[in-house]
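Input (structure):
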C-alpha cells in the first residue's frame, strides 16, 4: 500500500498497529472481541525497496525509522504520504550494532508543532575515564544538529527505547552511580523537547533488579503503561501499571494487571520489545520473547493467554520484530526550506570536533 492512500477505518473492537518484520513495516489490524484475530492490511511502501528498517518509533502517528544499511533516518506520515530524510553528522556502528538511542518529539507553537529529533550515545562504565556520552538534537526548522550541554546523572540502556507522550519522551533509567549488574532500570526520566533538558529521575512503582525486564508504552496519547516481567527475583510474573498523573517532574502509578504466569500449564508467555494495552479488555499485546518471534502474545488476568500467528507475507521472520499501536495523523511534516542553509556556530563546531576526537579514540580501544 502506497503511503498517502486512504487507510481503512478501524471497525468496532478493532485496533490498528504498525508491525516491523523482515525490515519492513506493515499496517495490521487486531480484533479482541470474541476470539482474538489478527490480519495484515498492507505493507507500507514509503521507501526504496532496498531500504531495510531496523527500528521504528511512533510519535502520535508520525514514524521515525532507523535504517539497517543506511546512516540516514526517515520520518514518515503514512496517512498523508509524507516523508523527510535526515542526514546525521556521523555514524557509529561498532560490529554493525547501532548503539544510539533515538526519540522524536515536538514543541507546541501558536499555529503548529515544531519537531525535533533526539539522538544520544552513552557508554557508562564504573571507571570514570572510560565513560563517553554525546547527546545531540536535530531541529526540523533550522535543519541543524546541536550538541546538548548535558552532564547525565542517569544512565539509559540503549536496549530500553523511549516512548513519546504529549511531545516529550520518557525512558526507563537508573542512577548513573548504581552498578549496572545490580539494576538495569528502576526509574523514569523525561526528556522535554521544549527546554531540551532531562527532568529528574522519577520513581517506578516497584524495585526492579538486573534480571527484571521493564518497558514503556503510550496509552491513547494520554498516559503511560509500564510492563514489568520478573525473571529471578520473583519468577514468572508479569505486572502492568498505568499512570494516573504524568508530568516532567512528577508521576503517579496505578496497578493495572497482575499476571501470575506460574498458573500456566506448560508454556510461559513473555513479551519482548514494545507492547501496547487494551484498557477495556485488560490485556497486554506484544511479540513473543522466545523462539516464536513471529507470534503475537495477548496476556491478561486469570491465566488469559492467546498466541496469534501473523497471517500474510511479512517477509523474513528471522529479522528483528517490533510493533506499536497506530492512529493516523493529519500533522504535516515540514520540509527543509530552500536557499542558503543556516550555519553552525563556532561553539558547536568546537563541541563536535572534541566529541569526534573522543569517539575515534573510543572506537580504537574497542
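Output (sequence):
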Amino acid at each position: 500500500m502506497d503511503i498517502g492512500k486512504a487507510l481503512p477505518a478501524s471497525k468496532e473492537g478493532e485496533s490498528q498497529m504498525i508491525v516491523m518484520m523482515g525490515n519492513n513495516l506493515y499496517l495490521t489490524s487486531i480484533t479482541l472481541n470474541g476470539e482474538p484475530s489478527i490480519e495484515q492490511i498492507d505493507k507500507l511502501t514509503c521507501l526504496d525497496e532496498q531500504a531495510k528498517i531496523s527500528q521504528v518509533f511512533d510519535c502520535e502517528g508520525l514514524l521515525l525509522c532507523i535504517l539497517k544499511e543506511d546512516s540516514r533516518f526517515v520520518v514518515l506520515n503514512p496517512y498523508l504520504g509524507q516523508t523527510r530524510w535526515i542526514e546525521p553528522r556521523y555514524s557509529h556502528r561498532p560490529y554493525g550494532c547501532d548503539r544510539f538511542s533515538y526519540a522524536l518529539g515536538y514543541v507546541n507553537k501558536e499555529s503548529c508543532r515544531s519537531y525535533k529529533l533526539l539522538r544520544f550515545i552513552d557508554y557508562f562504565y564504573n571507571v570514570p575515564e572510560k565513560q563517553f556520552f554525546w547527546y545531540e538534537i536535530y531541529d526540523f526548522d533550522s535543519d541543524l544538529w546541536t550538541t546538548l550541554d548535558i552532564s547525565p546523572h542517569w544512565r539509559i540502556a540503549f536496549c530500553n527505547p523511549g516512548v513519546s507522550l504529549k511531545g516529550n519522551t520518557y525512558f526507563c533509567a537508573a542512577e548513573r552511580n548504581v552498578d549496572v549488574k545490580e539494576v538495569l532500570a528502576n526509574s523514569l526520566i523525561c526528556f522535554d523537547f521544549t527546554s531540551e533538558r532531562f527532568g529528574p529521575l522519577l520513581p517506578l512503582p516497584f524495585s526492579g533488579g538486573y534480571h527484571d525486564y521493564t518497558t514503556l508504552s503510550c496509552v491513547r496519547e494520554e498516559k503511560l503503561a509500564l510492563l514489568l516481567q520478573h525473571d529471578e527475583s520473583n519468577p514468572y510474573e508479569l505486572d502492568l501499571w498505568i499512570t494516573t498523573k504524568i508530568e516532567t517532574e512528577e508521576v503517579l502509578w496505578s496497578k493495572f494487571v497482575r499476571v501470575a504466569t506460574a498458573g500456566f500449564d506448560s508454556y510461559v508467555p513473555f513479551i519482548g520489545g514494545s507492547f501496547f494495552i487494551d484498557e477495556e479488555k485488560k490485556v497486554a499485546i506484544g511479540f513473543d520473547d522466545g523462539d516464536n518471534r513471529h507470534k503475537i502474545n495477548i496476556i491478561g488476568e486469570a491465566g488469559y493467554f492467546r498466541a496469534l500467528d501473523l497471517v500474510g507475507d511479512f517477509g523474513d521472520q528471522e529479522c528483528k520484530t517490533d510493533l506499536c499501536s497506530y492512529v493516523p495523523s493529519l500533522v504535516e511534516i515540514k520540509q527543509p526550506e530552500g536557499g542558503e542553509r543556516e550555519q553552525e556556530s563556532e561553539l558547536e563546531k568546537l563541541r563536535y570536533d572534541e566529541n569526534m576526537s573522543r569517539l575515534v579514540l573510543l572506537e580504537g580501544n574497542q
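Notes: The chain is about 5% helix and 45% strand. Helices lie at 346-365.
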